[in-house]
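Final report, closing paragraph on structural work. Over the funding period we assembled a curated collection of sequence-structure pairs, and we close with a single example.
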Amino acid sequence: MSVWIKICGIRDIATAEVIADQAVSAIGLNFFAKSPRSVSTIQAAEITHRLRDRSPAASPTAVGLFVNHSLLEVESIAEQVGITMIQLHGDEPPEFLHKLHTRHPDWQILKAFRINNSLEPISEFVAECKRLNVPLAGCLLDARVDGAFGGTGKVAPWDLIAEEYNREAWPPLILAGGLTPDNVAEAIRVVQPWGIDTASGVESSPGVKDPELITRFVATARQAFDSIVEATKQKS
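Its predicted structure, as stored:
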């Protein structure tokens, strides 16, 4: 079982290289201006260029995080930075995704959902995307905090997600929401997601990543996924 790990909210080259050394799947570049993890277009471009120069084949995928940006803003930033995976973390409707996909069919789209006590919004959203022929590369499930668009450190409802996420009919499940080196193993055991995403959980202060926490998080997550694989083999 290959684990997809994303570290989000990267703001400088040094941190990006620390993460790249851990061979994670993706880094998140946050373009939401109100976030303490926001990055400028110039900074983001410098980060992606450095990672490609290091090792183009092995560098993590750069994911652009957008919150209620206009279509033109998403396009302009993505093209300037050189990213082709877009994470929509706001209130964007399926029609917005349809326009984006129509104009850029080669781009991958992740849609984030802030979860409280029901997954019904996911069911409706995914169904509408299918009707519009919009492929989703993944659904990222975060915790709902009123007035916030992620990065709060609040843990998502793991049991609800584990019980109600329709793995056969819905896109790959990416679990976010308050994941840290101390709880990520339990989160993986309970939810068994396809991928995981953290931002505040590996920070020493808002927006400042801690290399030791990143290393612990990645190692713990991989060990937890390996345990699931081994348990599955024993059952079969």
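The mean pLDDT is 93. DSSP finds eight helices and ten strands in the chain. We thank the funder for supporting this effort.
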